[in-house]
Amino acid sequence: MVEESKVHTPLIAVERIPYVGTNMLKDPISVVDPEAFEIMKNEKSRQKRGLELIASENFTTKAVHDALGSAMSNKYSEGYPGA
């Protein structure tokens, strides 16, 4: 008989900041999600302060950042090209 194993993951209380903006589709991330905005600011600061010698951390150009934040990031494809 196979014994069933159960994994218990404790829940962590999360305090959400209520959205106080006027238009979630147009407001900047600093208004929509101040906590995420702070995390991004801290990460940008960390990257400016030093050089991380970790292969998985790469610096990109402004053009790449612009492309990632453009309307093109709303697109995705599945499957094979031309199929």
TrEMBL record:
It holds the Pfam family SHMT. InterPro entries: PyrdxlP-dep_Trfase (IPR015424), PyrdxlP-dep_Trfase_major (IPR015421), Ser_HO-MeTrfase-like (IPR049943), SHMT-like_dom (IPR039429). It comes from Ascaris lumbricoides (Giant roundworm). SUPFAM superfamilies: PLP-dependent transferases. One of its GO terms (biological process) is glycine biosynthetic process from serine. Coiled coil: none annotated. GO terms for molecular function: glycine hydroxymethyltransferase activity; pyridoxal phosphate binding. Its cofactor is pyridoxal 5'-phosphate. This is Glycine hydroxymethyltransferase. Keywords: Pyridoxal phosphate.
